[in-house]
Write a structure and sequence with these properties.
The protein is mostly helical. The protein is built from 17 helices and no strands. The chain has a domain of 185 residues. It is globular. The chain starts with a helix and ends with a helix.
Length: 417
C-alpha cells in the first residue's frame, strides 16, 4: 500500500466511523474501524531511506514513509482504537476527527518537501481545533485553534526560506530556523506557546484529546528529528537550541504543575511534560536523547489510552499499573526514556542535565501522588467485559515495555533515527 493509499484508508475509516455508525446506532464500534485502519499500515512497505520534510530533487513532492513513520502510525493507531474502546461514551464525531487527523499525519510523516509538511501539519491542527471548538466552545478551545493554526501557518512560511538556508547565519537562514522553531513549539505546546494544551485538556474529553497526544505531536517530533540533521548549520543550530531550552523549560513547568494538579488533570500535565522532554532530547543532537524520546513516546502510547480518561469504578488496578509505568522508577519504561534523555542532556551541558533532573523528579512525584491519592470515582456504571479486557491489555503493555525497552522500541520504530 502506498502512503497516499494509507492516508485515504484513514480518511475512509473516519467517514465510516463518524458518519455511518451513528446512523446505524453503533457508535461504540468506532474502535473497530480505527483498529482496522491502523493495521492497514502493516501492508505498507517502508522505504529504504526516509528523507523526511527536506527539499530533495530525488523525491520531488512524493510521499515516502520510513520505518519509524510506519511504526508510529500502527502503534499510535492501535492506541487510538483502545482509547475509543475505553471511552465512557462517544458522540460519534470523535472517530471522524481522529481519523482525519491521522490521515493528515500520514502526509506529515511522508512529506519530502517542507511546504507539504507545513500544510499537512496545519490541516491536522485545523481539524483538531474545529473538533475541540465544536465539542466545548469557549476561550480555551478558541485559543488552541488560534495558536495551533498560527503555528501551522508559520511552518508553511518557513518552507519558503528553508531551501535558501545556508551554513552561515544570514537573514534568510536565521528566518528559516526561527520560523521552524516557532511552528514546532506551537504544535508541541512548548512555553511560551503552550498555555492552550492544559486548558483544552480540562475542556474536552479524553477521546478528543487523544489524537494530539498519540499522533499529531509525535508526528511533528519524528519529522523534526529527521529534518534537523538535513538542515544547514545556520538553521539547524537555532532550531536545536530552541527545542532544548524550551523543551526543558516546558518539562520543568509541566512537571511542577503535574505534582500539584488534581487527579482530573494530572495525566494531561504529565504527558505535556514528557513530550517536552522528547523535544529536549532531539535538541541535544545526541543518539541517547533521540532514543529516549522514542521510548517516552511509546510509554505514553501504552499508558495514554487508559489515563487520558477520567477515573471509573472497577478500573483502579489497571490505572495503578499504568501510573506505575510513568513513575520513572526502574525498570519502568518512563525510567529508561527519561534516563536516556538525561544522558543526552548531560552531553549538552550541566545546566540542561540539572533541568532535566528537576523535571524527572517532578514527574515522579506526580505519578506517586496518582498512586497514593488516586481519586477514583465512587459512582458510575461499572465497565463491561470488553472495556475491562482492553484496560488490562493497556496496563500490561505499559509495564511490559519497561522490561525490554530497546527490543520493543526497535521493533516498532526500526533503527534509531
Amino acid at each position: 500500500m502506498s502512503p497516499l493509499g494509507l492516508a485515504l484508508t484513514w480518511a475512509g475509516a473516519g467517514v465510516l466511523g463518524g458518519a455511518m455508525l451513528p446512523r446505524l446506532h453503533r457508535r461504540r464500534l468506532a474502535w473497530i474501524v480505527v483498529l482496522g485502519a491502523a493495521l492497514a499500515g502493516l501492508a505498507a512497505a517502508p522505504a529504504a531511506t526516509w528523507p523526511g520534510p527536506a527539499a530533495s530533487h530525488a523525491y520531488g513532492a512524493s510521499l515516502v514513509l520510513g520505518r519509524p513513520a510506519l511504526g508510529l502510525l500502527v502503534a499510535g493507531g492501535i492506541a487510538l482504537a483502545a482509547t475509543l474502546a475505553i471511552a465512557p461514551h462517544l458522540e460519534g464525531a470523535e472517530s471522524l476527527a481522529a481519523c482525519l487527523v491521522v490521515s493528515a499525519c500520514v502526509v506529515v510523516l511522508g512529506a519530502t518537501v517542507p511546504i507539504i509538511w507545513g500544510l499537512a501539519v496545519a490541516l491536522a491542527a485545523a481539524v483538531l481545533a474545529l473538533r475541540w471548538i465544536a465539542a466545548a466552545p469557549g476561550r480555551a478551545t478558541l485559543a488552541a485553534g488560534r495558536v495551533m493554526g498560527l503555528g501551522g501557518a508559520v511552518l508553511v512560511g518557513a518552507a519558503v526560506f528553508v531551501p535558501a538556508a545556508g551554513p552561515a547565519v544570514d537573514n534568510r537562514t536565521a528566518l528559516a530556523g526561527g520560523l521552524l522553531a516557532g511552528g514546532v513549539c506551537a504544535q508541541l505546546a512548548l512555553v511560551p506557546l503552550g498555555g492552550w494544551a492544559p486548558s483544552v485538556a480540562r475542556a474536552v474529553s479524553g477521546a478528543d484529546l487523544a489524537p494530539w497526544v498519540m499522533l499529531l505531536a509525535p508526528s511533528v517530533l519524528l519529522t523534526a528529528g529527521v529534518l534537523l540533521p538535513a538542515l544547514p548549520g545556520g538553521a539547524r543550530v537555532p532550531l536545536a537550541n530552541v527545542l532544548l531550552v524550551l523543551g526543558l523549560a516546558s518539562a520543568v513547568f509541566g512537571a511542577v504543575q503535574a505534582a500539584r494538579a488534581s487527579p482530573a488533570v494530572r495525566y494531561s500535565r504529565v504527558v505535556i511534560a514528557d513530550l517536552a522532554l522528547v523535544a529536549a532530547g532531539l535538541g541535544t543532537g545526541h543518539t541517547a536523547g533521540r532514543l529516549g524520546g522514542l521510548v517516552l513516546i511509546l510509554a505514553q502510547l501504552c499508558a495514554g489510552p487508559l489515563l487520558v480518561h477520567p477515573a471509573r469504578p472497577g478500573l483502579g488496578r489497571q490505572r495503578a499499573l499504568a501510573w506505575l509505568s510513568l513513575t520513572g522508577l526502574p525498570p519502568t519504561p518512563a525510567f529508561w526514556g527519561r534516563f536516556l534523555v538525561l544522558e543526552g542532556c548531560a552531553a549538552a551541558s550541566g545546566t540542561a542535565l540539572a533541568a532535566g533532573m528537576v523535571a524527572s523528579a517532578g514527574l515522579l512525584i506526580a505519578a506517586v501522588r496518582a498512586l497514593t491519592l488516586p481519586g477514583d470515582a465512587a459512582e458510575g456504571t461499572p465497565p463491561g467485559r470488553l472495556v475491562r479486557a482492553v484496560t488490562w491489555a493497556v496496563a500490561l503493555a505499559s509495564i511490559s515495555l519497561g522490561f525490554a525497552p530497546d527490543a520493543i522500541t526497535t521493533g516498532v520504530f526500526g533503527a534509531i533515527m
